[in-house]
Amino acid sequence: MGSDEDARRRLTRMPPQGAIVAVLATAGLASSFMFTLMVPIQSKLPELLNASREDTAWVVTSTLLAAAVITPISGRLGDMYGKRRILLVLVAVMIVGSIVAALSPGIVGIIVGRTLQGAIVGVVPLGISIMRDVLREDRVDSAIAFMSATLGVGGALGLPISAVITERADWHVLFWVAAGLGVVVFALVLWIVPVSVLRTAGRFDYLGAAGLAVGLIGILLAISRGNEWGWASPAVLAFGGGGAVVLLVWGWYELRIDEPLLDLRVAARPAVLLTNIASIAMGFALFASNVVYPQMLELPVATGAGFGLSLLAASLIVMPSGIVMMLLSPVAGRIARRTGPKLLLILGAASLIAAYAFTLVLSSEVWHILVANILIGFGIGFGYASMPMLIMRSVPQSETGASNGLNALFRSLGTSTAAAVIGAVLASYAVDFDGVPVPTTQGFTLSFVLGGAAAVVALVVALFIPRRRDAHERHPSLPE
């Protein structure tokens, strides 16, 4: 085999590397935008769809479930059949889902459309894996940091855009905008991103994919709907317990077949396992801020716990965190090249701890929340950039897509758990205001403590991640 650079030239075509990074980052922005799409109208959905609040909750839950199931499976499919090909399929599914939702006046069509939109979440781990395959080694870390930043940037920028659209147009326009964005991403990927010839041989593990899907859906349903159904209700216990049992059987099965969906022995390597555990904690800390800060900013001043800002004004206060993430990406790349990504994760967790500590001390002015969100931007910018770097330094080339997908799944478990736990806390510490229950200062304070505690867990776990590269790692190259 020739050098790494010679191997890379054997890719079918190689547009400018900056263009490849820009296109994949745009796909990442589209992915994170899907999760802020419904925020401006979420509280109004029962009225808009003429349905109960419990039924309209599925508009959000369906996207979460689809994303969690599709992400690790699409990563494996990308390893086997081509990452760009699977990425294009995911974008196409999102476009179809957006059109279905845009044309649907009722709740069933909206839920179906939102479920299909959840497929787009898989483009981030796939995009990161493509970067490892096709970029020069000296550009990989910065590009991964930039791609990871889109997870926060898309939401930070998408929220004010969604707010403006819903204030000035029919809410279905949100889905047409999503469809248009998907078409642009599809065309750019088709035009710019090279076809990867790095493939993993073997058969796709259909039984393993089905088992993983069933187990994840059970656990995530229990977590996401626990507040509404009751944490000790038969439904939550059945879904949660059943999902856990299915995943245990799934793990036993995956360890005993020759071509598993996910190589759990690779996932059990210390660097990979600890990074994934830290991902759960980082996901929790991030989403806790996404739930709490906007509510504080938007609640009426008369409640004693809010600042009375409009949705648009509140989103502009939150937006700088996403801008910080983007500006940090080249810095994160340089730090990773010089010291390794472990330091990035430590810095990220420390920044999140600082953000929550700052808020516990100072949260009486709007600028206090702005400062806290900027610190959150530092934390997630460094933390989310580090995790795929740590993963890819510890897994073989054949496992890149699947391992990144699994890491994205663990982040999703963290965000899902945060949504349920923080939601339960705010519901428990609520008072009646004009006939509507609203969170109290005590509820927000406890939420800050929980978010900070998750960040502490991420920091402690990060300290134990091995610094050295795994002996199994090899630099991206084409098979002989």
Automatic annotation (TrEMBL):
Q: Record keywords: NADP included?
A: no
Q: Which residues form the Major facilitator superfamily (MFS) profile domain?
A: 20-470
Q: Which SUPFAM superfamilies match?
A: MFS general substrate transporter
User: Record's PROSITE patterns?
Assistant: MFS
Q: Membrane topology for this entry?
A: Multi-pass membrane protein
Instruction: Tell me yes or no: is Cell membrane among this UniProt entry's keywords.
Output: no
Q: Which residues form the signal peptide?
A: none
Entry keywords, A to Z: Membrane, Transmembrane, Transmembrane helix, Transport
The entry's localization annotation reads: Cell membrane
Q: Which residues cross the membrane?
A: 20-41, 56-74, 86-104, 110-131, 143-165, 171-192, 204-223, 229-250, 271-293, 305-331, 343-361, 367-387, 408-431, 443-465
Q: Which portions of this protein are annotated as coiled-coil regions? A: none
Specify the protein name: MFS transporter
Q: What is the lineage of its organism?
A: Bacteria, Bacillati, Actinomycetota, Actinomycetes, Micrococcales
